[in-house]
Design a protein that fits this description.
Blueprint: E1 22-27, H1 32-47, E2 55-61, H2 67-81, H3 88-96, E3 98-102, H4 110-125, E4 131-135, H5 142-151, E5 159-163, H6 171-182, E6 190-192, H7 200-210, E7 224-232, H8 241-266, H9 275-287, E8 297-300, E9 302-303, E10 305-307, E11 310-312, E12 330-335, E13 347-352, E14 359-366, E15 386-392, E16 396-404, E17 412-420, H10 421-424, H11 432-442, H12 451-465, E18 478-479, H13 486-493
Parallel strand pairs: 1-2, 1-4, 2-3, 4-5, 5-6, 7-13, 9-18
Antiparallel strand pairs: 7-14, 8-12, 10-11, 12-13, 14-15, 15-16, 16-17
Helix pairs in contact: 1-2, 1-3, 1-11, 6-12, 8-9, 8-12, 9-12
The structure holds NADPH dihydro-nicotinamide-adenine-dinucleotide phosphate and 6-O-phosphono-beta-D-glucopyranose (BG6).
């Protein structure tokens, strides 16, 4: 095995993480996710020699393609979307174990073709019957595929199932899907993806909180005034109208990524970092959450505007979107976690498409110093301390503190102590999918969501959207390229607070 001295790319990675031989079967191999995320992630794992030596990738979709065409298309995808240089030797090693099956899984017999290919490649590459099935398909096809896979389970080797989001459309459908999965798979075989949990900076939130003794005593309602979580995107719906019209920002981002960020920020220290301990603590947070009243939730939809200098169309003008659509592309809310640590501490959250720029950040806003012993005007430029965790881009952490301006007298101003990943570590940032695929192969579910978490997330969303069936806000209510509807600002102004300045 290579050491960090032989290969500096391995620095920071735990070398004992070598998975068993296995086949990764991707359902949805002709789709967007496979080419933009999954294959580039697999290539980067191969590049760092983190994949098992005996490994295979079987792509499945309805589109007819030969193995060679599939490989050529995936190579191009790696070239276009990968983070590492495309090296022929690395690619050839990965491509050697790649196969493609063109079949409709909804048709009788579709699964037989997949099983045949798997049997062949298993023998050829001694994969010991170990399988990871990745469902990168539309959610409507999940039950058919899960059922077919369950029926064909063999006793040989282990089986794991990665299920992409969205996991259901509401609590009822999530429960139905869980029941279908649990008919054939045990909970420790199911890996529900929320790719935000695979992001380095999200995991760093755990490191920040639990590897540093100084934060724990002040990480509570006594010292923290409020918390702001922003998931801003400058992109629109990127041709995914069919999906987005049904989902909106509340199901696309709030139900999963945002609530996971909140849970990690608010959770109690777990007793250890096993999947069960971490997920037990997150689910407690989700269970402690109030349903916000309608006045504490703002929804928006973007109209035409300018983003990063380019004129862009409004949501209702996007291809495939109903011109009268009432789908939300922006949500802001004031949330409470009702427990001893956080009672009465608001969590203001906002997320939206076509905002001025891409930025995901968690801001921990501390209370003002109780009594600044300076002249009244001396601290005019001073704001309370903020710990800002930049999830993306410019990954890092920044702490705003008051400092004396050099010179005569005593004038205080806010300055920032910054830690930037790029500066502190030599390694590039791995993509979330690299971490998650590898963890699944290793059977580590810590960064995946458990049934009860998903259900708690849906309970909250269902309660929040219930009033939406009655009232019809006047959409569009924010121009593309702005920070959302005015009512989102008013949500904070009512509490004499404001969104963090950008
Ligand atoms: P696409 O529509 O681009 O791809 C869907 C894939 O499913 C295609 O390969 C399609 O192949 C295949 N498929 C559909 N029906 C069948 C069937 N009956 N039998 C076999 N294959 C079938 O979707 P995405 O790649 O964008 O998304 C896939 C999943 O990932 C979805 O659950 C989505 O919500 C999730 N996701 C996607 C993200 C993204 O950035 N794209 C981000 C987060 C989650 P064909 O048409 O050839 O049959
Ligand atoms: C996906 C959503 O889960 O996350 C997309 O479906 C969104 O709408 C994407 O654009 C954002 O992911 P990231 O990693 O770019 O922040």
């Amino acid at each position: 095995m290579a050491t960090t001295q032989e290969n500096p790319l391995l620095e920071g990675l735990q070398l004992r993480r070598t998975p068993d031989p296995c086949a990764l079967v991707i359902f949805g191999a002709s789709g967007d996710l496979t080419q933009k995320k999954l294959l580039p992630a697999l290539y980067s794992l191969a590049f760092r020699r983190l994949l098992p030596e005996r490994f295979a990738v079987v792509g499945v979709a309805r589109t007819e393609e030969t193995d060679e065409e599939f490989k050529a298309r995936m190579k191009e995808a790696v070239r276009q979307y990968g983070r590492d240089e495309l090296r022929d030797d690395v690619w050839e090693t990965l491509a050697e174990g790649m196969r493609y099956v063109g079949t409709d899984f909804a048709d009788e017999g579709g699964e037989n073709e997949v099983a045949e290919t798997l049997k062949e490649i298993d023998e050829e590459r001694s994969l010991e019957g170990n399988r990871v099935y990745y469902l990168a398909i539309p959610p409507s096809v999940f039950p058919t595929v899960v059922d077919a896979l369950g029926q064909r389970r063999t006793a040989k080797g282990w089986t794991r199932l990665i299920v992409e989001k969205p996991f259901g459309h509401d609590l009822q459908s999530a429960r139905t899907l869980n029941a279908a999965i649990q008919e054939h798979f045990s909970e420790d075989e199911v890996f529900r993806i929320d790719h935000y949990l695979g992001k380095e900076t999200v995991q760093n939130m755990l490191a920040l909180r639990f590897a540093n003794g100084i934060f724990e005593p002040i990480w509570n309602r006594q010292f923290i005034d409020h918390i702001q979580i922003t998931v801003a995107e400058s992109i629109g719906i990127e041709g995914r109208a069919g999906y987005y019209e049904q989902a909106g920002a509340i199901r696309d981002i709030f139900q999963n990524h945002l609530l996971q960020l909140l849970a990690i920020t608010a959770m109690e220290p777990p007793i250890d970092f096993t999947a069960e301990s971490v997920r037990n603590e997150k689910v407690k947070v989700l269970r402690s959450m109030h349903t916000p009243g309608p006045k504490s939730v703002v929804r928006g939809q973007y109209g035409r505007g300018f983003v990063e200098g380019d004129e862009v169309r409004g949501y209702r003008e996007e291809v495939g979107v109903d011109p009268q659509s009432m789908t939300d592309t922006y949500v802001a809310a004031k949330l409470y976690v009702d427990n001893w640590r956080w009672a009465d501490t608001p969590f203001y959250v906002r997320m939206g498409k076509r905002l001025p720029r891409r930025e995901t950040a968690i801001a921990i806003q501390f209370k003002r110093a109780p009594h600044p012993p300076f002249e009244e005007t001396a601290a005019d430029g001073l704001r309370p301390n903020v710990l800002l965790v930049h999830i993306q881009p410019d990954e890092g952490v920044s702490f705003a503190i008051g400092a004396k301006v050099p010179g005569q007298g005593m004038t205080i101003r806010t300055v920032h102590m910054d830690f930037l990943y790029g500066g502190a570590f030599r390694t590039g940032m791995p993509e979330a999918y690299e971490r998650l695929i590898l963890d699944c192969m290793l059977g580590d579910a810590t960064l995946f969501t458990r049934t009860d978490e998903v259900e708690e997330q849906w309970k909250l969303v269902d309660a929040m959207v219930a009033p939406w069936l009655r009232d019809r806000p006047s959409f569009p209510n924010y121009a593309a390229g702005t920070w959302g509807p005015q009512s989102a600002d008013e949500l904070l102004h009512r509490d004499q607070r404001s969104w963090r300045r950008h």
